[in-house]
Write a structure and sequence with these properties.
mainly alpha; 3 domains; binds flavin-adenine dinucleotide
């Protein structure tokens, strides 16, 4: 009798369940749990341990096979779609990408679905280029007489984007672009 866990239902009941631990799920889980909700994150991919699971992080191109390039044979076999941008799949980080032959999908029209299945999702793979919106983004179409006016303005979402940007440590481009204000959290690209 002592092995029976009478609290199993309570212990396995959550206020929120987040599916996927990428940028969307990760930020949702962070916000929900910081607000005090008991939150469960379900992730289909493997666990990623910080530092330990970055085996190539301190390697120079000459430490890697083919100076970091992946052979055309390997691309054709495993990464035809993942490598469509031409720069994504390299020796130093190909292990973050799914293999297309193991995770195929059908395209009616070309659809580039580069992705990885692991804790953190594409937050581990992305380039951290994230352009901040400005008022122009929500008014440009009206000024040019195109489409329907947005029901919101940049000011309505600004507080949320500032929280997001500092959580992601994303970077903005050059300073001084009127339509793309510099992020408050990280220095701009040079
Ligand atoms: C190489 C590369 C560079 C990029 N550079 C930029 C950039 O510079 N700027 C920019 O703005 N964007 C960039 N992006 C795009 C950006 O990274 C993605 O749009 C963003 O990370 C997507 O976040 P997400 O949470 O929606 O999805 P993901 O990060 O893909 O997260 C989805 C998560 O859900 C998990 N999952 C999927 N199915 C299930 C399931 N059934 N059950 C449980 N878990 C599941 C996955 O394993 C994954 O962890 C880049 C993308 C790539 C691939």
């Amino acid at each position: 009798m002592s092995n029976i866990n009478g609290k199993w239902q309570q212990e396995n009941t959550y206020d929120a369940i987040v599916i996927g631990s990428g940028i969307s799920g990760g930020i949702a889980a962070k916000e929900l749990s910081e607000k005090g909700l008991k939150t469960l994150v379900l992730e289909r991919g493997r666990m990623v341990k910080h530092i330990e699971d970055y085996p190539t992080m301190n390697m120079a191109p000459w430490d890697l096979p083919n100076r970091g390039r992946v052979s055309q044979d390997e691309i054709d076999k495993h990464y035809q779609k993942q490598n469509r941008t031409g720069y994504t799949v390299q020796q130093g980080h190909k292990h973050w990408f799914v293999k297309d032959d193991e995770h195929p999908y059908t395209e009616v029209k070309r659809f580039d679905w580069m992705r990885g299945y692991h804790v953190g999702g594409r937050s581990i793979m992305w380039g951290r280029q994230s352009y901040r919106h400005s008022d122009l983004d929500f008014q440009a179409n009206v000024k040019e007489g195109i489409g329907v006016d947005w029901p919101i303005r940049y000011a309505d979402i600004a507080p949320g984007t500032i929280i997001l940007r500092s959580s992601l440590a994303s970077v903005a481009p050059m300073k001084g672009w009127r339509n793309c204000p510099t992020a408050s959290s990280s220095p701009p690209w040079k």
